[in-house]
Design brief:
Blueprint (H helix, E strand, L loop, with lengths): L4 E5 L6 H14 L6 E5 L5 H7 L6 E4 L16 H6 L4 E4 L2 H5 L5 H13 L3 E6 L3 H5 L3 H12 L5 H4 L2 E5 L13 H18 L2 H6 L2 E3 L5 H8 L6 E4 L6 H8 L4
Parallel strand pairs: 1-2, 1-8, 2-3, 3-4, 4-5, 5-6, 6-7, 7-8
Helix pairs in contact: 1-2, 7-9, 9-11
């Protein structure tokens, strides 16, 4: 049976002081949570977040990383730096990275392979834009992004990959897919994993939903058969909105 995996992507929010405060509150409120929990603060606060999370079951994640291990790459953050800080997982291919910063599938795939090679878990984001959905291309888009993002990844390493379906039109807009609509796309992604690997790999794949997840819609989404968790944005910035999502079945 697949576990539920709830991750909080804090994006470009929270100072060092604010990060420590929120991490400590979450550690307390989610101490009895049976689900897998991860938070991804900004790079500048990873060190203090790691200290605040010591002795808890909450994983420390990063929001991105370079496709290069080290070198002359001004402004980039390497996998070695992340590991040194205690980071256990990294979010890759987020729609904001794809759309605003022009990251392509092959570039994202290099990051996925590098992260896995260094023992990190990966959350690989896929999802269609509003224009692609209105054109009926959503199934093809997420299938292609899944295939290209996982290119060269062995079935063994796939066990450390989570896929996050995030419809671009629902991120930060307050809009969200219905539980049934989201589950249908999750089923498409699971079918693509089966095609690329095996039925066993598809059955084991954890697929999160990310698109304006909040306490009010968490239970509907997280009880769908193909939705195994949530990649939470805005609602992850406050304990009073993130904790109820993680505790949706309480």
């Amino acid at each position: 049976m697949r576990i539920k995996y709830i991750a909080g992507n804090w994006k470009m929010h929270k100072t060092v002081t604010e990060t420590v405060s929120l991490a400590r509150v979450l550690a307390g409120e989610l101490a009895s949570c049976k689900h897998k929990i991860m938070i991804a603060p900004p790079f500048t606060a990873l060190a203090v977040a790691a200290k605040a999370l010591e002795g808890t079951s909450i994983l420390l994640g990063a929001q991105n990383m370079s496709d290069q291990e080290q070198g002359a790459h001004t402004g980039e953050v390497s996998v070695l730096m992340l590991k040194d800080l205690g980071v256990k997982a990294v979010i890759l291919g987020h729609s904001e990275r794809r759309i605003i910063y022009g990251e392509k599938d092959d570039f994202i795939n290099r990051k996925v392979k590098l992260a896995l090679a260094h023992g990190l878990e990966v959350v690989l984001c896929v999802g269609e834009t509003l224009q692609e959905r209105e054109a009926g291309k959503q199934d093809g888009v997420v299938s292609s992004q899944t295939e290209k993002g996982l290119s060269g990844i062995s079935e063994k390493d796939l066990l450390r990959v989570t896929i996050a379906y995030e419809p671009v039109w629902a991120i930060g807009t307050g809009k969200n897919a219905t539980g049934q609509d989201a589950d249908a796309i999750h089923a498409v992604i699971r079918a693509q994993v089966k095609k690329l690997y095996s039925q066993a790999a598809a059955d084991a794949m954890i697929i999160q939903y990310g698109g304006s997840v909040k306490p009010e819609n968490a239970k509907e989404l997280l009880t769908m058969p193909n939705i195994d968790g949530a990649l939470v944005g805005g609602a992850a910035l406050k304990a009073e909105t993130f904790a109820p999502i993680a505790l949706f079945d309480k």
